[in-house]
Specification:
single chain; 486 residues; alpha+beta; Butyryl-CoA Dehydrogenase, subunit A, domain 3; six-stranded mixed β-sheet; four-stranded mixed β-sheet; 18 helices; 14% strand; oxidoreductase activity, acting on the CH-CH group of donors
Length: 486
């Protein structure tokens, strides 16, 4: 396994093509707006080195027998599934941000089982290819950007009906030695911090859409691939001198990017689906289930930090023992642990797939994510309530450091007796960062739209909820004679 420093140096060696705010970024690793997100990924390596976290951060590969980072692992039991959620909560607690390796891990597990079943029915050889690819990833401890979401264009039209065929990533040429693809993947978490991109289809497909049924992997610096880095709330604060307090979370962060494939060639050994449209839906459904499970860990860890920040804000405001403040903190804890309970529940009810790796309970995973589309918003609202209006009206750090204005700021922004004004500003800025600033992208908005927007889970809950069986239970208890019904 790589160390955190080895990971950082490995990213320096890549010749990534990254654009941000109209300019090409020659050195993404040290760019002030990008580096906090790289630090979050580096934490996935740092914790894996620590003996006290070995059980949750690492696993023994079923492919090589070696100890690997859990982010590269295929789940072999319900205990593995639970440890995944525990790992994600731990990393959320350590970074208060998105650590960007979950999508790749969830893609590994979805593609592994789907290619196995596809090969069994169709006589293809994608599973063996994917196993060799995953061995490469595990042996080199790589960060892989799992990429599913297409721009989609007109949402009322299927991929093949789009006015512009590139609205969904698609195969434009099949060669003897591989395929050529064109299109883009949107909202790609951690794309600029990834060694590889692992592509999946984004929707279930019919035969007319078969050119869009494609799964493959390419290095981040492959020819024809480039990224446009996403703009985030308060992102330019990272380039301002004397703005460390104003950042709220100066060390860690997350990012998303638009990843564009401009006639990219993919060799056969890295192609895991090529027009087998019948299996696009299975791959999408399994990936979505795994990723909806993930939110029962990562968002809970970030929630832990937000709850702690709200409790500290109450102390700096001088009201930690006021009954309604205590009640709000209790409610925040209750909501956060409810999310965690869902993540653990869908893991505990997991079952092995035909390929041998374990799949979570899909119904409970979708219930987990449906709750995540709602409860973090209430946790954030309560944090803002406890923090007070000063969170969004206080002067900048530059004013605090100014020889003339500084004493005035310290005098009038002071809260509880014996509490430092600077520390009060720090904790309020952290809450701002998590509820309104750059971290809100990964906590609030991603809670809503990540791993599928709310209606996607409701469709799956309807499909998995087995309403007919529940109706039959009611008939039997009530002694319904169905012959009497017309």
């Amino acid at each position: 396994m790589m160390t955190s420093q080895e990971y950082i140096e490995s990213m320096r060696k890549l010749n990534l093509k990254v654009y941000f705010m109209g300019e090409r970024i020659e050195n993404p690793v040290d760019h002030p707006m990008i580096r906090p997100s790289l630090n979050s990924v580096a934490m996935t390596y740092e914790l894996a080195e620590k003996p006290e976290y070995q059980e949750v951060m690492t696993a023994i590969s079923n492919l090589t027998g070696k100890r690997i980072n859990r982010f590269c692992h295929l789940h072999q039991s319900t205990e593995d599934l639970k440890n995944k959620v525990k790992m994600q909560r731990l990393l959320g607690q350590k970074t208060a941000s998105c650590f960007q390796r979950c999508v790749g891990m969830d893609a590994f597990n979805a593609i592994y089982s789907t290619t196995y079943e596809m090969d069994q029915e169709l006589g293809t050889s994608y599973h063996a290819r994917f196993v060799e690819y995953l061995k490469y990833v595990q042996d080199n401890d790589l960060v892989v950007d799992g990429a599913m979401t297409d721009p989609k264009g007109d949402r009322g039209l299927s991929p093949s009906q789009q006015e512009d065929p590139d609205m969904y990533l698609h195969i434009v040429e099949v060669r003897e030695d591989g395929i050529v693809v064109r299109g883009a993947k949107a909202h790609q978490t951690g794309a600029v911090n990834s060694h590889e991109h692992l592509i999946m289809p984004t929707v279930a497909m019919k035969e007319g859409d078969k050119d869009y049924a494609v799964s493959f992997a390419v290095p981040g610096d492959t020819e024809g691939l480039f990224m446009i880095y996403g703009r985030q709330s308060c992102d330019t604060r990272k380039t301002e001198a004397g703005a460390e307090i104003d950042l709220g979370n100066p060390t860690f962060g997350g990012h998303e990017a638009l990843v564009v494939f401009d006639n990219v060639f993919v060799p056969n050994e890295r192609v895991f689906m090529c027009k087998e449209y019948q299996y696009a839906g299975m791959m999408v459904e399994r990936f979505a289930g795994y990723h909806r499970q993930s939110y029962g860990g990562c968002k809970v860890g970030v929630g832990d930090v937000l709850i702690g920040a709200a409790a500290l804000a109450a102390e700096y405001n001088g009201v930690p023992k006021v009954s309604h403040i205590k009640d709000k903190l209790i409610e925040m804890i209750h909501l956060n642990e409810t999310l965690y309970a869902c993540g653990i529940a869908c893991s505990s009810e997991g079952k092995p797939t035909a390929s041998g790796n374990y799949l979570i309970d899909l119904l409970l995973a979708n219930v987990c994510k449906q709750n995540v589309t709602r409860l973090p918003y209430e946790i954030a609202r309560l944090a803002e309530d406890i923090a007070g209006g000063l969170m969004v009206t206080m002067p900048s750090e530059q004013d605090l450091r100014d020889p003339e204005l500084g004493p005035v700021v310290k005098k009038y922004l002071k809260g509880a007796v014996g509490k430092d004004t600077t520390n009060r500003m720090r904790i309020l800025r952290l809450i701002e960062n998590m509820t309104l600033g750059t971290a809100a992208v990964g906590y609030r908005t991603e809670s809503m739209h990540g791993a599928g927007s709310p209606q996607a889970q409701r469709i799956m809950i309807s499909r998995q909820g087995n309403l007919e069986a529940k109706k039959q239970m009611a008939r039997e208890i009530a002694r319904i004679d169905t012959s009497l019904d017309k």
